[in-house]
Design a protein that fits this description.
By secondary structure, the protein is of the alpha/beta class. The protein contains 15 helices and seven strands. The longest helix has 23 residues.
């Protein structure tokens, strides 16, 4: 059965992630050299995307464009025009959204092609069964009381339940999870923002950066982009410090609020100028590799953390 060129996945982040992984595997099985381009709808220039979709790739036979958060698109008409055209051979597009009205022009386009897939979060009565299934995939056997605890404490959030199941797999001998084990270990953290992670990265504190990163349930590609922007700010501030620019002038030159400047300056001073430039260069190259399909975003993010927090970030290949 041929792989659909356009697919829309709407619903639960965990289920959409699984469906995306299966689609990526199918594409790679037909063409191992296929490039993967990870994009976010609110960062995409649609005209440029249209041109890129219709042009032939330079270095690979196939391409897979993964575009997240399409539910945030405010002007869908250019998107419908770009995605409504026939795509070149071996060019695939996957759109992801947490929710999208059936009246949305994008939803209508995909429905007309039979390319829309709804993957809703499990209903309250189905949560425990869904939790058992994802635990089984990780080699765990949840006893009934353990499944109830995992479902209740994660609030039916499968992404959170999957993270907790991964933690349980490290502490459950033989994969058997009793209610007592679950009661002692299942404590999902409240959702954290990415800003503490960026600050710890700027402070060049490896252990604290990794702890802050572990607390965030956010797409690794978006986190990587945010980390690169944070390092760009720090590099710019470090350059201004080297040139003896006053804080009052920095506020105007870098367009920062004074309170934010006061928070970032100590981080910028943790770097020598050459180190800040090298860390930023590493981040930019890793981001490019992710977008070209050369490395997974999660792996690139870890490489950036290790590179930026060591005393002399490497200038070689990321």
């Amino acid at each position: 059965m041929p792989i659909p060129s356009l697919v829309l996945l709407v619903g639960d982040p965990y289920r959409c992630g699984r469906a995306l992984a299966e689609r990526e595997a199918a594409i790679r099985s037909e063409d191992p050299t296929s490039e993967r381009h990870a994009l976010f709808a609110d960062e995409v220039d649609v005209a440029s995307l249209d041109t890129e979709l219709q042009s032939a790739p330079l270095f690979a036979l196939g391409r897979h464009f993964v575009i997240r958060r399409v539910d945030g698109i405010r002007k869908p008409t250019p998107w419908v025009e770009a995605l409504g055209r026939p795509l070149p051979p071996a060019t695939f597009v996957t759109l992801l959204a947490s929710e999208l009205k059936i009246t949305s022009p994008l939803a209508k386009l995909c429905q007309a092609r039979g390319a829309g897939t709804a993957l809703p979060a499990p209903s309250p009565r189905d949560v425990e069964q869904s939790v058992r299934e994802l635990a089984t995939e990780r080699g765990l056997r949840l006893r009934p009381e353990a499944a109830e605890i995992l479902a209740r404490r994660t609030g039916g959030d499968l992404l959170s339940a999957a993270e907790e199941a991964a933690k349980l797999s490290s502490f459950a001998p033989g994969g058997d999870v009793s209610g007592d084990v679950a009661d002692r270990l299942v404590f999902p953290a409240a959702e954290s923002t990415a800003y503490p992670f960026y600050d710890r990265l700027g402070e060049r504190d490896l252990a604290s950066s990794l702890r802050a990163l572990a607390e965030i349930r956010e797409d690794a590609g978006r986190l990587l982009g945010g980390a690169v922007r944070h390092l760009a700010r720090l590099a710019a501030l470090r350059l201004l410090v080297e040139r003896g620019v006053s804080q009052e002038e920095m506020v105007q030159l870098v367009a920062l609020q004074p309170w934010l400047l006061r928070r970032l300056l100590p981080q910028a001073n943790r770097f020598q100028l050459e180190e800040a430039a090298a860390a930023l260069d590493l981040g930019v190259r890793l981001d490019a590799q992710v977008k070209s399909g050369g490395i997974q975003a999660s792996d690139a993010l870890l490489k950036l953390v290790f590179g930026a927090t060591r005393s002399s970030p490497p200038r070689g290949r990321g």
